[in-house]
User: What shape does this take?
Amino acid sequence: MKKKSSSLALLAVCLTANAQFYTVENKHVKQAVSQNVQVENHQGNAKVSDSLNLETKLSEEYFELPEHKEIAIEYDIPLFVSVRDSMMYELLGRRRNVALPLDFLKVTSDYGYRADPFTKCSRWHSGLDLRAKYAHVYAMFPGVIEKVERRSTGYGNNIIINHGNLRVRYAHLSFIVVKEGQVVSAGTIVGISGRSGRATAEHLHLEISKWSQDEQGESWQRVDPEPFLSHLNNYIVALQQKMDTLHFDVHPSLPLNINNLYKVMDKYGIKFPKIVAAQSVLESGWYSSELCCRWGNIFGLFDSRKGDYYHFNSWMESVEAYGKYVQRKYNPRIDKDYYAFLKRIRYAENMESYIAKVRAIVKTL
Assistant: This one.
């Protein structure tokens, strides 16, 4: 990322809102098998268990098992679960342990020396400022709320989350929803951004400290959050691509991200691409909904004849369909702007709220 004009884009992950997942762990099953072989059925299916026991008895009539010899059977995946499902569980387990601090990331002030917004003099900035106007703020990793402060000066309302060898401070919050000592998961909402304390506008101040050891002893040292966030973002993107590969058997011909979305929209002649891109972000939860991940429908397009959402082979088909089914109705002679057009065709149930959300997303793109 480039300094002074940094911009991060959070890519999709097939998750529900707030990025909350619960661990799905692979269980190791160890069984001692002697003359009386027992097979444990982890799904509680009595018929399957009886069938396996019957086969065991039959095998004993024809094959003599050595006496006093135990056979250890160990499974790395749950019984009766496919290898593909097990791989997906593993990826989901990794994904639920990471999250970006905001839904949309845009750096407004870098780490290091900068002109102080109040005094205009050069002053050290110990963190990173991210554009966030009363937005949800998320814990980036599992951790413990180490400190909660409510102040009218300095950091304002702020919290510190301890992640072991990392500590993260979220400052200038308008509202805090956690308390000291609370254990949080990655993706847990910990507060709402704002401009409390010494701040000129609504934003999220993010500080990352790393536990270090040197000749002088042990201490917490602040580090630049920007390359850290960049690495975390790339890690999430890589997980998403692996999950896409499992969904579609092959790697998608074109990964779904904002840059590729603009290219495909240009190919199909989509008008007002920034507004349409914001619609896709809102409809798909930043490309994390099941409709998007499983069926490639990034706009929530609904087939009224079948009474169901459209299913596409790829997200690119969804863009093409948006042009055919939605934008063909656009008429500049009767629609003063694209928002008025969306309201005229009643694209969503609550259009006032929908348009307000789309406008807010457009500002981040």
Q: What stands out?
A: The first helix runs from residue 46 to 62. The chain is about 30% helix and 25% strand. The two ends are 16 Å apart (CA to CA). Confidence is low (pLDDT under 50) at residues 1-66, 68-81.
